[in-house]
């Protein structure tokens, strides 16, 4: 159970970082194209 919770929290953190990185990348592309 403890390992499962650790994996879940790791995936949530990784997903959040990945989402922020992707959002920043998209915004920078939009700025470059404007």
Features:
34 residues; mainly alpha; rod-shaped
Question: Helix share of residues?
Answer: over 70%
What order do the helices and strands follow? H
Largest sheet, in brief, is: none
Structural class of the helix and strand makeup? mainly alpha
Structure report:
The structure is a single chain. With 34 residues, the protein is mainly alpha-helical. It has one helix at 2-33. The protein is rod-shaped. It starts with a helix and ends with a helix.
Topology:
Layout: H1 2-33
Would you kindly provide a brief summary of this structure?
The protein is an all-alpha fold and 34 residues long. It has 1 helix and no strands. The longest helix has 32 residues, at 2-33.
